[in-house]
Write a structure and sequence with these properties.
This protein is α/β, with parallel strands linked by helices. About 45% of the residues lie in helices and about 15% in strands.
């Protein structure tokens, strides 16, 4: 039985992270049904409840488990007792590098040389890299790369970072985010949720909408956008869309930390009666994808809300608060439906969304083959993992002989 350790943020607070883990497990387990997946997590109960149908072992990362989040005995054991370590999502960056409550790179880089010495490969699995802005961070990432015979990335920007930083690496493949292959639940379950939440009653249609708390990630000339102006712009945009298109809004939270800012923005909305709030605190990532499948257009600020929507072929507009958002939109040929913070006003955002609404049928037809291509790329990563596992098995046979 092969042991595969999966590293990422799997506490259950983020629907995108849950989608990454769920689709990874589904894809790899289909090819390797005898594999044991070891998942370090702050919330073993969540992992067991939602993914316990797989052969999975959830390791707690709390102080009573001998850990300070990622740093501690569980992660050391998970990496050093595995046949393969998979690093997912976007956890290899150097912001707050020495703070294990925030940063994964420092801990993984500390264990990586021991993995290399034991012949345990580390592979990035449909992951992103960076940002890397310090010499210490660069050195830490290089230690991980030295133990990584294969990098499976989900965007070209990560490959560019490797080259810009002049880092040494082996094989690189550009595939796609696992979350794009999320499958909604059966119709019966979706109809139950729709009835409970009072959704999709307006014959004119429903717009999906999502924001996150990363407003002041955007800076220009050392100026930030500002929380209050942002909330005012969002509130007045929602009112205008409701009034001018005569539609309803499904306000979608995919990370529970965004609940606060979502609720704050609603204070600036006059037509609150036309808005329903849906949260991953209540619904699974599959159920959220199923709801996003029913909206006409989805406007997303958190990248994985955009990925979940596009994965079910819903046209998307993205508010660009993070580089990976722009990268994903470009990948699926939708970068013309992207708005940057330095362009964001009530008028510009409203007009962009109205144009997307009017062109939604043509957009869906144009994006469908590109999304399907990305879905195939995400699944193809399993074949690369199989190669690493096979190489490890051959090495064991040679040693035994």
């Amino acid at each position: 039985m092969k042991k595969i350790t999966v590293l990422g943020n799997f506490s259950g607070r983020n629907a995108g992270d849950a989608a990454i883990l769920g689709n990874l497990l589904d894809d790899i387990a289909a090819a390797h049904p005898d594999a044991l997946f070891i998942v370090p997590t702050l919330n073993p109960r969540f992992v067991k409840r939602h993914f316990g149908h797989h052969n999975i072992k959830a390791l707690g990362l709390m102080p009573w488990n001998g850990a300070v989040k990622i740093f501690g005995l569980p992660t050391f054991q998970a990496m050093l007792q595995a046949d393969l370590v998979l690093v997912t999502d976007n956890i290899l960056f150097d912001r707050k590098l020495l703070n294990p409550l925030f940063n994964y790179l420092s801990t993984i880089s500390l264990i990586a040389p021991a993995c290399k010495a034991r012949g345990i490969p580390i592979a990035l699995y449909n992951a992103s890299l960076g940002p890397i802005t310090t010499s210490l961070g660069k050195s830490a990432l290089q230690r991980v790369l030295d133990a990584s015979p294969m990098l499976i990335l989900r965007d070209e920007q990560s490959k560019q970072l490797l080259d810009q930083q002049k880092l040494n690496y082996q094989e690189v493949y550009i595939n796609a985010d696992c979350a794009i292959n999320t499958t909604p639940p059966p119709t019966e379950r979706m109809e139950e949720i729709i009835g409970k939440e009072g959704l999709f009653k307006n014959p004119k249609g429903t717009l999906g909408f999502n924001i996150n708390a990363y407003i002041d990630n955007w800076r220009k000339d050392n100026k930030t956008f500002g929380r209050e102006p942002f909330l005012q712009a969002i509130g007045s945009t929602l009112d205008r869309l409701i009034e001018e298109l005569d539609i309803e809004i499904m306000y979608t939270i995919t990370q529970v930390m965004d609940t606060k800012i979502t609720n704050e923005s609603l204070k600036y909305v006059k037509r609150r009666d036309r808005i329903r709030v849906i949260s991953n605190a209540t619904y699974t990532y599959q159920e959220i994808a199923g709801l996003l499948q029913r909206v006409e257009v989805h406007v997303g600020m958190r990248t994985h809300s955009v990925i979940l929507a596009s994965g079910v072929l819903t046209p998307v507009v993205a508010i660009n608060s993070y580089p990976k958002t722009a990268g994903f939109m470009k990948t699926i040929g939708q970068d013309n439906w992207l708005i940057n913070f330095d362009e964001l006003t009530t008028n510009t955002l409203t007009n962009l969304i109205k144009s997307a609404w009017e062109q939604r049928h043509e957009t869906r037809a144009a994006m469908t083959p590109l999304v399907q291509r990305e879905q195939a790329k995400a699944r193809s990563s399993v074949e690369l993992v199989s190669q690493l596992l096979a190489q490890g098995q051959q090495s064991e046979v040679q040693v035994t002989a």
